[in-house]
Amino acid sequence: MAVITMLAKYKTTVKEPGIPGVLKMMEDVFSFTPNDPRSAKKLKVDFRNIKGHKFSKDGSKQALLNLTQVPEKGGGYIFEFNNFADRNVCRDFVGKVLGKFQTLTSEQTDQPSSGKVTASEKATASIEQLSTKEMEHRMKLLREDSELQKLHKELVFGNVLTESEFWATRKALLDDDSDRTLKQRTGFKSAMLADIRPSTDGQTNKVTFSLTPEIIHQIFSEKPAVHRAFLNFVPVKMTEKDFWTKYCRAEYLHRTKNSVAAAAEAAEDEELAVFLKHDDILANEARRKIRRVDPTVDMVADFSDDYIHLSVHGILQDGNKETIDSENDFAKRTLAHDVNRHATVVLEGRALDIELRDTRAVAEALARSKEASSVDTSDENANLGRQERAVRMTELEDLQASHSLPYASLCIKDPREYFDFQQVNALKALGGTGSRTIDYSLNTEDAYYYLLQQISEVKLQGVHNPVVQSDTALKVLTGLTQQISSTRYNLGKNPQESVLDRFPKRTKDEIMLHWMSIQELLRHFWSSYPITTAYLYNKVLRLKSAMADIYQKLKAIKDVQSDFRHQISLLIQPMLQSLDAAFAHYDAEEHKHSTKNGARLNGFVQ
Amino acid sequence: MNSASAPSKLYSNDVSLLVVLLDANPFFWASSAAASGDSASQHHPTAVLSFSKLLNHVIPFLSSLLLLNQFNQVVLITTGVNSCSYIYDSEEGGAESATGKVPAACSKILLRLEEFLTKDRLLGKDPDKAVASSVSSLLSGSLSLALCCILNSSTKCFFFHSYAGMVDLLALDFGVDIQRIFRSGTRHPQPRGSPDGPEQYVAVMNAIFTAQRSMIPIDSCVMGVQHSAFLQQASYITGGVYLKPQHLDGLFQYLSSVFATDLQSRSFLQLPRPAGVDFRAS
């Protein structure tokens, strides 16, 4: 919404009756026109003069909105609306506009380099509605990415691009951020907190259990019988509180290892009995799993998984081995049972992703997810699949033909050495043909005699003084230096290193920055063609001047005399070429445009 | 410096032990002298050096090394056609007589060289005439001699210092071993095939790997027209410097600026590297 028009009454103080009229709000100004054309209270105020806004609470006697001015002017404009809805609409609008202005001004104060009053131009030129949230978002992006910030600073505050244009190409960045929620599914805690430990009050006989939705979720996952009971009983038979009380009582009875008392209470209260009995759902599941065991030794399950029915296994939680009264059939839940069940549930992962608000919702959601998963498993197909696998696994390897596939042996060598070697060979081939092969056949005697003669010559003459002539020495030294500093030996030796890394840091940063700026500018430049409006034309002019600046800078870098001159010029060359292409296009378009205009002028007949 | 065989020892001082292998293959030197006398336009004017000039560069180089550090040690070994021998060891004491224009050490070297050559000639069983290109000098033998010397002397030196009650006993790096091999240009140019005798390949490679294990860099300075594959490999594998000087008049300058660097300095100095290494075995 760019403009809001609302009926309102304007007043300077709260007590006044107010002058009825029409309040019109736009992005940068708001105006008030009284209904009575003779009244002198016409207003047209720029939002920049408005510092803040105050409003009366919803539900109070008057729906007021007070736009306070900057402290120099003092006072404010109070508008009374017919109802709160209208007032709220206006209030939100004002809030947005003020927010936009505030962030713009804060940006301005941060960048003193832009001395020009560009805020007004920007504010009038930008037609979009910016919420404060979006502004914050952009600021955050700029803060996090220093390169982006540099680019932004250079282009937007150098008055080359406007904010909107800058961010237009970066919608992906803005959108991505907003819904970057944590998609990670957290699982259950591995600590067994479903084993609720009550806090006992030493003085009274009360035992307090504390249950959170998290704990409840875990209980439902681990004990499907309790889950079923919850779905059945609550809220039909008992309230949730009662349900949990009974559950906690059952747990407490377990803990106290008083099986007689447990039997007694269970006889009284059939719901309680549910909690104390074996979890039959679990038992069914376990039996089903065992039936599905793969004969080809698939370690998914074997009969010891049915730990519920193993009575001699594990440490009994109450330490003594009493025989179970068969008719009561209470669960002798051993520690092993609990631990195993908990571990299974934890490893299965959290079935629900929703927030845990209340128990009912949790229970239902869990039931739904269980249904979904049980529908998938169809026994028929599973059986077939298992049979097939069994057949496959039981093949006898001795009776098979040999599977000797041809393979190429792995050879890990540094390929660069090969290329160096080839280069040497090439050099040799070139150099070898230069010199003639003259073989001398010598007399052994003569050879030795020659050497001995040489030695005696040295003896006679002594060592030369100076050993080396100074100019020869200089030649040698310069040759060595050139050879050492030649980059030929460094290129391509280290795969992790790039040419850019060998430059001094400042040069590298400069080149990178220029590169990014050029990318951005060229993108905008080429997207502005064909030029249809004056806006685009101005934009192109601005871009062109910025590009010319960078062009000069690049040329300056290229001309700097340094060791890396060659590499730098190789890097900069494509940048200059792209800029040249842009300039050429611009000139061509200008030329076309001017010839067209010229023709029109000439042929213009009024 | 190739990282393939960079020494991992940390050198705490710049003491060095240098073993120089000098190639005294008479056939090569005589033939190169003949060639240079023959047609100077064919060969590069500075491609060959006469043996006396070589000695004029090498001997001052050895002396300058001894000047660099009080504890530096220099050993000179010659490689002949039939034998190799120690020529000079700077640790040796003994009466040194200065003869005429030549300083004492120098005269000792020259004397020993003469003796060596005469002995070498006597050892030779080859026919009287030989084609210069087919006679190779015993690189492997001299490498082995050098390695023995170094590995032997490192222990010796340690004991020496502990006996003399040096304060800094922990300077085990004293035996920091630099071995430089002088290999004067070997064969006459052959388009295919290394100037080194192929029959020595195994022995030379053994020596090279020994040096690598003991972290002894082998530097090579090659004269002559062709590169030497053996020495290239040696320098590459052991992390030494391989150089074929362009201006042989300034050989001393090459020696003192490149080959006189001790191992500690090599960690921060940049030394010339060859463009590629020839790994062929021929």
Brief descriptors of the model:
A: 606 residues; alpha+beta; seven-stranded antiparallel β-sheet; two-stranded antiparallel ribbon; 22 helices; 10 strands; 55% helix; flat; B: 282 residues; alpha/beta; six-stranded mixed β-sheet; globular
Strand content of chain B: 5-15%
Radius of gyration of chain A: 44 Å
How far the N terminus sits from the C terminus of chain B, by CA atoms, comes to 25 Å
* Total count of strands of chain A: 10
The sequence of SSEs of chain B as H and E is EHHEEHEHEHEHEHH
- Shape type of chain A: flat
- Helical segment tally of chain B? 8
Main location (chain B): nucleus
Subcellular location (chain B): Nucleus
GO molecular function, one term (chain B): zinc ion binding
Family (chain B): Belongs to the TFB4 family.
Give a summary of the structure in a few sentences.
The complex is a heterodimer of chains A (606) and B (282). Chain A has 606 residues and is α+β, with helices and mostly antiparallel strands. Chain A has helices at 84-110, 119-125, 132-144, 146-157, 163-168, 171-178, 213-222, 224-233, 240-256, 259-268, 270-276, 280-291, 335-348, 359-376, 379-393, 415-432, 444-461, 470-485, 499-502, 505-528, 534-559, 565-603, and strands spanning 4-11, 19-25, 29-34, 43-46, 50-55, 63-69, 76-81, 199-200, 207-208, 441-443.
Task: Give the topology, please.
The complex is a heterodimer of chains A (606) and B (282).
Chain A: E1 4-11, E2 19-25, E3 29-34, E4 43-46, E5 50-55, E6 63-69, E7 76-81, H1 84-110, H2 119-125, H3 132-144, H4 146-157, H5 163-168, H6 171-178, E8 199-200, E9 207-208, H7 213-222, H8 224-233, H9 240-256, H10 259-268, H11 270-276, H12 280-291, H13 335-348, H14 359-376, H15 379-393, H16 415-432, E10 441-443, H17 444-461, H18 470-485, H19 499-502, H20 505-528, H21 534-559, H22 565-603
Chain B: E1 17-23, H1 26-38, H2 51-68, E2 73-79, E3 84-89, H3 104-123, E4 129-131, H4 139-163, E5 177-183, H5 201-213, E6 218-222, H6 229-238, E7 242-243, H7 251-259, H8 263-266
Parallel strand pairs in B: 1-2, 1-5, 5-6, 6-7
Antiparallel strand pairs in B: 2-3
